[in-house]
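P.,

For your records, the input lines for the assembly:
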Amino acid sequence: MIYMDNAATFWPKPPSVIQAMTDYMTNIGANSGRSGHRLAIEAGRIVYETREAVAELFNISDPLRVVFCSNATEALNLAMRGFLQAGDGVITSSIEHNSVMRPLRALEKEGIEVTVVNCSSQGFLDPHDVQAAIKSNTKLIVLNHASNVVGSILPVAEVGKIARENDLVLLVDAAQTVGAYPIDAEAMNIDLLAFTGHKAMYGPQGTGGLYVREGIDLKPLKWGGTGSRSEEEYQPDFLPDKYESGTMNIVGLAGLGAGVRFVLSEDIDKIRENEKNLTRKLLNGLLNIEDITVYGGLDVDRQVGLVSFNIEGVSPSEVGFQLDEEYEIMCRVGLHCAPAAHKTIGTFPIGTVRLSLSHFTTEEEIGETIRAVVEIALNKG
Amino acid sequence: MIYMDNAATFWPKPPSVIQAMTDYMTNIGANSGRSGHRLAIEAGRIVYETREAVAELFNISDPLRVVFCSNATEALNLAMRGFLQAGDGVITSSIEHNSVMRPLRALEKEGIEVTVVNCSSQGFLDPHDVQAAIKSNTKLIVLNHASNVVGSILPVAEVGKIARENDLVLLVDAAQTVGAYPIDAEAMNIDLLAFTGHKAMYGPQGTGGLYVREGIDLKPLKWGGTGSRSEEEYQPDFLPDKYESGTMNIVGLAGLGAGVRFVLSEDIDKIRENEKNLTRKLLNGLLNIEDITVYGGLDVDRQVGLVSFNIEGVSPSEVGFQLDEEYEIMCRVGLHCAPAAHKTIGTFPIGTVRLSLSHFTTEEEIGETIRAVVEIALNKG
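C-alpha cells returned:
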C-alpha cells in the first residue's frame, strides 16, 4: 500500500509518537493543571514540554503564548471570531480552505466586511494586491501559508511587512506548512499562527493550536474550568488558560510533543530538501504523461509536497477509485474542502486528484505512483 | 500507588482502549469523512461505531444526533452559546462546575439573565425550587447530573418533566455520571446532554460531546471544513456535520468507542452496584474517624463514587501532600473548579480533600486509603 494522502493527515507517524501516547495512557493518565499529586505534575510536564517544542519550531520566545486547540479549524475560529468585531474589515485570498472561508462567511452575516483578493490561476498571491485591498475599516489579513489544493506557497513574510506598516494583524493558516517548511513567526511578522498537529508536525489528530503574539487580545471561544483561579466564576485573563478551558487532550499532546521533537531532530531544512526532491520527481513524472493537466506553479521552490492533477476524460473520483482498487495507492479526490481555490485554478466543481507526500515517502513509492497514473491515462475509455 | 482521583480523569483505562488507539495509529491513520480510499473509509467506520455505542449508552435512537467535541466544556459552550439569545433567561443550580458557571457569567455580560437556584448544604436540589424560579423569559435549565464536589445526584428526570411542561429546554452536564450511572436521555426528557469521554466512559482525554434532541437548533461554535458539501462556503445545516468542523480526534474516538463498549459489556447496573459498594465502604470508614467532616448526603443511593472531606486543623493541601508523599495515594484537593458548590456546602475558599473511585478500584485500596487518613488525622499538629 502506498499512502499519498498526507495533506489530509500524515501517516505513518514516527514510532516515538505512538510510544509517547501509549506511555502516557499506561503509566501516567492523570489530568494536568488540576490536582497536585505526582501523576498530575507529570501530566503537566508533558503539556509544557510540548508547548516548548512548538515554540522552538516557530522560533517564538514565550511557550505560554502557544494555545492548544483541538485542530487548526478551532484555532482559526478562535483567532477570527475572537479578534473581529462588527464593522471591521478582513482581507483574505481566493485560495483559502473552508476552515477560513466558512467562519468568514458566517462573520459576514454578523456585520464583518470580507474582501477576497484574487490569486493567479497557478495559486499565487501578489502582495501588492493585498496592499491595494486595504480599506479604512480593515483590521485583519488571513492567509493560508500554502494551498491545500495546489501546494503554492503564499508570500506571508511580505504580507506580514505590509500588515505591520498598516497596523493590521496577520493571521496565518499554516496547516500545510508547519513542520515541513521553516517558519519564524517573529521574523515573518505573523501575529496569529494557526497550526494543526496531525500533519507535518507528526502528532495525532485532535491536536493543533494558535500562537498569539504578545499584545493581541482575543475573546475566548469557550469558557470553563482551567485549574487556575478556581475561586472565580470568571475566566482567567492570562495565557494560555484564557483560551484552554476544560480537560486538555493530554494523550494527544504527548504524541504531538514527540512528533515535533522528531521534526526538530531531523532538522526542518533537511525535511524540506527531501520533500522538494520527492515533489520534483512526482511533478516531472506526471508532466511526462499525455492527456494530463498538472495544476499550480510546477516549481518546487514555491510549492509544498502536494500535487493536484486531472486526466482528460476521466473524472477525479474514477482516478481515485482505480488508484485505490487496482494499485493500493491512497489519494484524495474532489474539492478538498476548498471550493474557492478550485474556482481560482479553474477546476470547480469537478475538483482534482491530489497526491501528497511526507518525509517518509520513498522515491520508489513516487515511481510506482507515476506508473499507476500512466496506466490509468493509457487505458481510459 | 493508589489512584483516587478518578473524578478528574479515570485511570487506568481498560487495555482494549489503549489497544484500539494503537491499532488506529499503526494500521489506519487516515482522516474520516474526507478522502474515499479504504483507510479513510475504515476511519469513518470507527467514528460511526463510536457514535453508535454512545447512542446505545444514552438510549437514543439516532446516532447522528451525537455530536463529538473535544471535552464536556466545549459541549456545554456549544449548547449554551448556541441556544441562548440576548434577553433569554437561564436557570441553573448553586452546585455547578465552572464549565457551566464561567460560560454563563460571560453570557450574562451579553444580555442573558442567569438565575441560580440554591441547593441544600448537602448538595441536593429541590425540583420545586426550579419550578418556582421559572420566569416569562426563561428558555433553558442547566444542571449537572451529579456534583463533582460532593457527588450528590440531582433530580434531572423530575426537572426534565418540569421543563417539558413549561416548554423549556433542559441541558444536563453529565460529566460525573455518564458511564457510571444509567442515563436514558429520552425517558428523562433531557434535550441536550453534555458528556466527557475520559471519565466513566473510559475513553482518552480530548473526547466528549453533546447529544442534541431532534427539533433543537443550535448556532455552531466553530465553522469550517466538514468533508460534506465541499462546494459550499456555508456550513452544512445537518447533524453532526454542522457542529463538527475540522479534522476529528479519530484516535481519541477509537479509544472512546472501546471504552463505551467496555461499559456496555460490563453492564452499567453492575458498574453502579460495584461503585455503590465501594463508596459505602469509603464513607463508613471516613465517618468513623474523629475530627473529620465528610460532606454531602452520606447516602450511596443519592451519590456517585466520590467523597469530599476535611480533617479539622489540617488544610486540604496538607492532607493531599501527605497522601501523595507518604502513602502514594493520589487525590485532589481545593476547589475542584467549582467555587459556587463550595459556597453551597460551606467549604469556600479552603475547599476539600476529594477521593474518587472507578470500577477498577479495589476494596483493599479503599481500606488502605482509610488507614492513611486515620493516621494523618491522628498525627496532626
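Two observations worth noting. Chain B has two domains: 2-11+268-379, 15-266. The mean pLDDT of chain B is 97.

Regards
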